[in-house]
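Please fill in the sequence for the structure shown.

STRUCTURE ENCODING:
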C-alpha cells in the first residue's frame, strides 16, 4: 500500500512534466467506484502543479480546480508519451506538456480501493484540512509529539502512528520501521514514553522517510509502481518489516504480531 515515500515519489516524477494542457479525457466503465465526486470537467483545463499532504495527492488546475487522489491499496499514476493501455486504467487524460510534447497521464488501480475527487477549491480544502500534520514537514516536531503523548496517554504507539488525523503519511510498513529505528516496542502505551523517546521517534521518522525516498519508494510483491511503472527499491532498507532477522543487530529473530488488526514487526532485543 503506497505510503508517504511512494506518493511523494510519484508527485516528484509527474511534476517534471507540468504544466499540462488537457485536451481529452477518457474514463473506464467502472470509474464510478473510484471517482466519487465530479464538480467540473477537466477537459481544456491546465494541470499546473501537484502537491501532497500525507498520502493524498493534490493536483492543482487553473480556475482553482483540483483533483484529490488517494491511491488506496494498489492505485498509481503513470505518465507516458504513448497512450496508456495497461489493464485497470480507469482515468486517462491526454494533452500537451512541457516542451510541447503530447503526454498521457493515467490513474491505474487493479483493486480499486483508491479514491479520486474533482473538486472546486472549497471542497478540496476541506479534505486537505481533515488530515493532520504531514510527518515530512517541519511541523512534525518533538513538541507536537509530546503534546499528543500528553493528550492520549492510553493509546498504543504503533496503531496510533497510523492515525492520519495526527500523523499524515505514515502507513503500516513505516510505523513498524519507525518503532524499530527509535528502539521502542510497538505495543508501548504512550503514557510510558518519556522525552528521550519522543526525540527518538522524531529522528526515526526522518530516517525511515529518507531511506524510502532515496529508494524511490518501497515495492512489496505485486504492489506499488512509480510514475514510469518501475518498482521502488526501499525493501532493501527495511530493518524489521517483513524481515526474518533484525537488520539493526543482525542477530535476533524478528517477532511478528497483530496490533489493531495489522501485521506488526519488532526486534525483542533492539526495542524496549
Ligand atoms: Zn535487533
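FILLED IN BY: designer on duty
SEQUENCE:
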Amino acid at each position: 500500500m503506497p505510503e508517504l515515500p511512494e506518493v511523494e515519489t510519484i508527485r516528484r516524477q509527474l511534476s517534471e512534466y507540468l504544466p499540462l494542457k488537457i485536451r481529452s479525457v477518457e474514463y473506464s466503465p467502472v470509474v464510478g467506484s473510484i471517482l466519487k465526486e465530479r464538480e467540473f470537467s477537466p477537459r481544456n483545463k491546465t494541470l499546473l502543479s501537484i502537491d501532497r499532504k500525507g498520502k493524498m495527492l493534490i493536483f492543482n488546475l487553473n480556475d482553482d480546480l483540483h483533483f484529490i487522489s488517494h491511491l488506496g491499496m494498489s492505485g498509481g499514476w503513470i505518465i507516458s508519451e504513448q497512450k496508456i493501455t495497461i489493464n485497470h486504467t480507469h482515468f486517462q487524460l491526454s494533452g500537451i506538456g512541457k516542451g510541447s510534447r503530447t503526454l498521457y497521464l493515467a490513474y491505474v488501480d487493479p483493486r480499486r480501493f483508491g479514491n479520486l475527487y474533482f473538486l472546486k477549491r472549497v471542497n478540496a480544502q476541506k479534505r486537505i484540512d481533515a488530515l493532520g500534520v504531514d510527518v515530512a514537514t517541519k511541523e512534525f516536531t518533538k513538541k507536537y509529539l509530546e503534546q499528543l503523548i500528553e493528550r492520549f496517554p492510553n493509546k498504543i504507539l504503533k496503531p496510533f502512528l497510523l492515525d492520519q488525523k495526527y500523523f499524515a503519511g505514515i502507513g503500516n510498513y513505516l510505523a513498524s520501521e519507525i518503532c524499530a529505528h527509535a528502539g521502542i516496542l510497538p505495543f508501548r502505551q504512550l503514557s510510558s514514553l518519556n522525552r528521550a523517546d519522543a526525540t527518538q521517534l522524531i529522528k526515526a521518522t526522518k530516517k525511515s522517510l529518507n531511506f524510502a525516498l532515496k529508494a524511490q519508494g518501497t515495492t512489496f510483491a505485486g504492489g506499488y509502481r512509480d510514475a514510469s511503472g518501475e518498482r521502488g527499491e526501499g525493501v532493501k532498507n527495511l530493518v524489521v518489516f517483513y524481515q526474518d532477522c533484525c537488520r539493526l543487530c543482525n542477530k535476533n529473530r524478528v517477532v511478528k504480531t497483530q496490533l489493531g488488526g495489522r501485521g506488526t514487526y519488532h526486534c525483542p532485543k533492539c526495542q524496549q
